[in-house]
Specification:
By secondary structure, the protein is an all-alpha fold. The chain folds into two domains: 223 residues, no CATH class; 147 residues. The longest helix is centred in the middle third of the chain and has 32 residues. The chain starts with 10 loop residues before the first helix and ends in a 5-residue tail after the last helix.
């Protein structure tokens, strides 16, 4: 069985997405060079895009490392999501180069001890380059290995992908943990949380799963119609349920420990996000990322329904945007949240970048890895 046509967007749809991407580029330039108060939005956009690209790569790596065959039929979807990674990294690099003042410790001394060593701009920038290089190198290597298997069907490519995946997951755990500390937590250098890295991973991966599900459902209406069945959707729904619940657990763990200890330098993070107009957004974040997907996906039926799964995934994706906003914006906007024109333009740009980068990635090879040795297992997944 082979795909009967390629993934294709109409010329009208492509033009619309390109226009939105152009708006995003203009908004990015405005945020970095015209309106310094909007620089936080550029950081949020780059961080979101980077997370979506990494989520696709992490999903692929987990499947290879676990020897899982069920996801092979749609593996090209998370592989194509890695095409979003360079766009996000480019946006982050522009933020670091153009607006280092976004981080208060670059302009005046706000730290001592180990922080004095760690929070130095050349060292910060050097670490960012290392993180980006590691992620990009593994993305290229893993996607290239998968593509090569299309040509000769050699099992050796699968073995190589397994080895790459195991090494990547170890490297990713360390680099993403440090990157979340560097890029997000250091926006407020007086605040610290040892659980912040795993909290960021939980949000990044649950949001990435939501995007993955929406993309699979879109392609299932066409090129993947004969390859993705209800059992695949069911397991994707279970993964989204599990990682949304995991996010909720980590969120509660961080909040509960800081609330119980009641140490001033730790509680400041939550005090700023619980007062004024931030309070309702703070509670909405918990609903969108934790409570809503938990309640919606607890029964079996919604996990097997494309329409229900799409709705829940859209809610989680909106929750991911809000979560990143709440991590970044309060340090820049003070007591009251607001979204300016640059912020709205960047949000539209993020959506366009996701679609256009994914579209480019999914068209570089067959939408199904036809020579993967586990493809037959995936096609007959849970079928008698």
């Amino acid at each position: 069985m082979t795909p009967n046509f390629e993934v294709k967007l109409s010329a009208t749809a492509m033009n619309r997405w390109r226009i939105l991407a152009g708006i995003g580029v203009v908004a990015l330039v405005a945020a970095l060079f015209v309106s310094p108060s909007s620089a936080w939005a550029a950081l949020a956009a780059g961080y979101l895009l980077t997370g979506f690209g990494l989520a696709g790569l992490v999903f692929v790596a987990i499947q290879y490392a676990c020897g899982a065959g069920w996801s092979v039929a749609f593996r090209r979807v998370p592989e194509a999501m890695t095409a979003i990674l360079p766009v996000g990294l480019l946006a982050l690099a522009l933020v670091f180069v153009a607006r280092p003042s976004l981080y208060p410790w670059t302009s005046h001394e706000t730290h001592a001890g180990f922080q004095r060593f760690w929070l130095r701009w050349p060292f910060f920038f050097g670490r960012a380059v290392v993180y980006m290089a590691v992620w990009t190198a593994f993305a290229i290597a893993m996607v290239r290995t998968s593509r090569r298997q299309d040509d000769d069907g050699a099992v050796s490519h699968t073995r190589r992908a397994v080895h790459l995946s195991i090494v990547f997951l170890i490297a990713f755990a360390l680099t993403f943990w440090l990157a979340s500390f560097d890029w997000i937590m250091s926006l407020d250098p007086s605040w610290a949380s040892t659980i912040f890295g795993i909290y960021n991973f939980a949000g990044m991966f649950s949001g990435g799963l939501a995007l993955l599900i929406l993309l699979v459902l879109w392609l299932r209406r066409g090129v993947l119609r004969d390859f993705v069945n209800e059992e695949h959707l069911h397991d994707l729904g279970k993964m989204l349920f599990a990682f949304s619940t995991f996010w909720m657990y980590i969120w509660f763990s961080q909040y509960m420990l800081i609330w119980y200890a009641d140490i001033g330098e730790e509680t400041s993070y939550y005090v700023a996000r619980l007062h004024n107009a931030w309070g309702p957004l703070f509670l909405l974040n918990v609903v969108l990322n934790g409570a809503a997907p938990f309640a919606a996906l607890l029964p079996r039926a919604p996990k097997r329904s494309p329409r229900a799964l799409a709705r829940v995934s859209a809610v989680v994706l909106a929750g991911r945007v809000l979560d990143v906003y709440l991590m970044i914006a309060p340090t820049s906007q003070g007591g009251h949240p607001h979204i300016d024109i640059a912020g709205l333009g960047l949000l539209l740009g993020v959506a366009a970048a996701v679609v256009l980068a994914f579209y480019r990635g999914i068209r570089t090879a067959s939408p199904v890895p036809v020579n993967d040795p586990y493809l037959e297992e995936s096609l007959h997944y849970h079928n008698a």
